[in-house]
Amino acid sequence: MSVQLFILRPDQHGPALNVVGTEVTVLASNEATKSYGITLQQGEEGTGPPPHSHDWDEAFYVLKGEIHFLCDGKPTPAPWGRSCTFPEEPCMAFATDEVVGRCWRLLEPAR
Known about the structure:
about 110 residues; mainly beta; Jelly Rolls; 1 helix; globular
């Protein structure tokens, strides 16, 4: 199953989803890549999902502000320019610590 080249302009992205107060825009869907998904997430101070876990790996790159990640009860602040990778299963959460925080997220493999 090969993936065809695709390039999306910002006006071609679907509408942003509101996930627990965090705006999530799908930049590349699992369906389009046949392998992984990429989202842009942003939110105001204090927004983010409560503790939860997945059966897939996730990676984040902080584009603006500072995001506070929580993994298995251990808090980890991640300012602009940091990348964080979370293996499947650990309980994790995150919250924005500035007026607007923004991060890029990669989910792999596609589920």
